[in-house]
């Protein structure tokens, strides 16, 4: 089952639990708008290359649509470069991610809807100036459809603060200087202190809230972390600093393990210096395929979607899965893991720290006022803790697991806003 089918299935299940009318259900599921644009740039050697860019805007009943922009070959469009036009991948993944953003912003109780975008490209194969040209062309194609009160992009896989700076600059050429049109910007351009760490930090706050319910804390527990980019590296660092033992880490270059705990500060320095995890003296190389089934208390997928599936879920040995990535667990795996008694903290809550601090960034830009980092982190903790208790409330009212608790919480808030706004022309 692909990501969109899986997301629709979870949404429908939540809608049924909530007793939502089938007509409202249909209107909530269909995206507000899907944008697909051609992005052609000259490469540094003068040859032309074409990519497909997407922005799926799912829902705006609670506020401007919000969500990241991904540069990733599997998401969309990259096949266009090597196959005929008709062979390129449909943006189901982006569509699912946009819908997840709608429920996520509602779970976090921030005044946004949901969106997601992406370009089907391999950012590591493009030079800095090629990435800049591609980002500017994409922005030229979508600038009329995004905006401070319409749709506010942010970084996601394969993009970063620099990407947001280019979007801000290009957008401002058409609409005047508008820092609040993107979040996750460099601090020098109005980015928020704490946004870079926010998704990983939110993952840690969410994990602490969950563990506390089970009479446990991070200190002394073992963690396996898939992905060592923005989210994975911050989560690993903060778990390590709280006394958690990170026993295995992977990225696209490979995986390392140390049952006594990896020194994450040293691993970060090693990756920065060499660009890979292998050859790190403080851990042994392991097969990346074994990362998800590594012996540990807490498994934290922080990379791609669909990594936990029918093939490997039965072999997972963790007691807790924290979905720091979006849609890391497919429905088969969800069922298998639940039957095994593994507790899953769902993505639309677990990784909501990023978009929550994006909201703080947008608020600071609109106010023209900058918060200090302690305030950002304290507010983030308050939002994450409150959302956890709200999810638990839904679990109790509807006798459901944490995923359905989060879905019913988010879907109910969006349905209420939709009904209040009405449909009269
Ligand atoms: N950034 C954010 O604020 C938010 C991100 N997310 C989600 O978190 C996840 C990670 O995003 P983010 O950290 O921003 O992305 P990054 O691009 O910063 O990092 C992605 C990481 O995943 C690794 N990776 C890629 N493919 C594989 C693979 N097959 N096996 C193991 N590792 C792999 C990359 O390896 P390498 O380092 O070698 O490239 C990199 O370490 C995504 O699902 C994203 O949607 C969710 C909420 C907010
Ligand atoms: O910060 C944001 O607006 C987007 C975060 C995001 O893309 C996500 O939560 O998946």
TrEMBL record:
The keyword Nucleotide-binding applies. This is Glutamate dehydrogenase. PROSITE patterns: GLFV_DEHYDROGENASE (PS00074). The keyword NAD applies. The active site is at 116 (proton donor). GO terms for biological process: L-glutamate catabolic process. Keywords: NAD, Nucleotide-binding, Oxidoreductase. Substrate binds at residues 66, 104, 358. Belongs to the Glu/Leu/Phe/Val dehydrogenases family. PANTHER family: GLUTAMATE DEHYDROGENASE (PTHR11606), NAD-SPECIFIC GLUTAMATE DEHYDROGENASE (PTHR11606:SF24). One of its GO terms (molecular function) is nucleotide binding. Residues 192-422 form the Glutamate/phenylalanine/leucine/valine/L-tryptophan dehydrogenase C-terminal domain. Transmembrane segments: none annotated. The record marks 156 as: Important for catalysis. InterPro entries: Aminoacid_DH-like_N_sf (IPR046346), Glu/Leu/Phe/Val/Trp_DH (IPR006095), Glu/Leu/Phe/Val/Trp_DH_C (IPR006096), Glu/Leu/Phe/Val/Trp_DH_dimer (IPR006097), Glu/Leu/Phe/Val_DH_AS (IPR033524), Glu_DH (IPR014362), NAD(P)-bd_dom_sf (IPR036291), NAD_bind_Glu_DH (IPR033922). NAD(+) binds at residues 199, 230. GO terms for cellular component: mitochondrion.
